[in-house]
Amino acid sequence: LQLEKDLHLALERDEFILYMQPQLNLADGRQSSVEALIRWQHPTRGLVPPLEFIPAAEESGLIIPIGRWVLENACRYLSSWRGTALDHMSIAINLSGRELASPDLLEAVSGMLTRYAVDPSKLKIELTEEIFIDNIEHNMDQLLRLDQLGLQLAIDDFGVGYSSLAYLRNFPVSLVKIDRSFIAHVVERPDDAVIVRAVINLAHNLGIPVVAEGIETQAQLDFLRDNHCDLIQGYFTGHPMPAKALLAHLSRTA
Ligand code: G
Ligand code: G
Ligand code: MN
Ligand code: NA
Q1: pTM to 2 decimals?
Q2: How far is the CA of 238 from the centre of ligand 3 (A)?
Q3: ipTM entry
Q4: Tell me, which fold does domain 2-178+236-253 have in CATH?
Q5: Strand, coil or helix: what is 236?
Q6: Buried b (16+ CB within 10 A) or exposed e, 152-169
Q7: In this structure, how many other beta carbons lie within 10 angstroms of the beta carbon of residue 95?
């Protein structure tokens, strides 16, 4: 309950910050997208990672105003990057099942896109497979409307949920993100290699590009390139960083 009060205050005092983790396109070697990951700049505790407050935010419903803050700030960055060296960047934001369930989500998203004059295709929404388990009709409706707005929809942590694969055919999925637990040992464990190859082939045969998460070594990168993965994200190509560090990072790694 104290945490809940503190989160209220954090919103009022504007203590949240978006870190950005670059994604590398393996085909052209360009970094043209980032995932926005929230952190809390706590006055005494320092930089608090999301796992320490997102669950409480979900529980209390504060995830809705926090998620709106994330959405607005992602749009603000996209708008501020226009005409700069970051003009080509798209931003992925994470949305929980509870946020997707929110009846005024679509209004909030289209409102922000208009307010910041953001090209909807520059905004990606990452959702986990939980959204294909309960409340499916409403979720389908929300996804179709987000898709119609022109946003890209990514399935996060792919392969660790308990949903049916049929959603890949029935829902407007623009991207699959292979969970990092499959990547961690992909080089030395043949079973993980089989799974990762199968996911890439499955997605590609459905016309869906693939992001692999949690790349920490050159050997993992080589494996993914050899197996035609589209994008990679991980500490090897860049830790999550403050947005103002992005430009320097890109010029360093270009
Ligand atoms: O950045 P880090 O790896 O610590 O993130 C941990 C988890 O927190 C990830 O699963 C990520 O999806 C989640 N997360 C990060 N930022 C946000 C956000 O803005 N909204 C929601 N709902 N979850 C987030
Ligand atoms: O669940 P989601 O994919 O949204 O969360 C992304 C989380 O993964 C972030 O908290 C980020 O800090 C973390 N992360 C990003 N790259 C790596 C990596 O290379 N290794 C590990 N262990 N974690 C990573
Ligand atoms: Mn994510
Ligand atoms: Na993930």
Answers
A1: 0.97
A2: 15
A3: 0.96
A4: TIM Barrel (3.20.20)
A5: coil
A6: bbbbbbbbebeeeeebbe
A7: 24
